[in-house]
Amino acid sequence: MTWAQDPLLMSALEAQNIRHAGLEAAAYTELDQRWSAELGRTPAPLVDSVLQTPASDFLRARMEESKGLITEVFMMDVHGLNVASAGITSDIWQGDEAKWQETYPKGADAVHLSDVELDESTQ
Q1: Residue 52, SS3 per DSSP
Q2: CB of 46 closer than 8 Å to CB of 73
Q3: How far apart are CA 94 and CA 57, in angstroms?
Q4: Structural contact between residues 47 and 88, judged by C-beta atoms closer than 8 angstroms
């Protein structure tokens, strides 16, 4: 079984896709702005709603098991919004980025490889 097939992750993804059914594109920008405004603040209800979940705990455990090979891991929904994340990302909406555009719409076998670059959130 791959991570993507894990029942905990699948359940979290399905639940968020149901919650966000009918979400309009303008909401992505609003959520991104709220996310950015919450970074480094307490309370941070939107950030915490992604980071403080069993699915995020699962991803953190897999990242720790990698012994440094994985520096960032997160899961996105049908809109490209973060569902779960091992750590804080610089934004919540990934749908405007190639990593989502070249995978999710193309199906389970899609792969996206990009050049290595510095990620601000993980350094």
Answers
A1: coil
A2: no
A3: 20
A4: yes
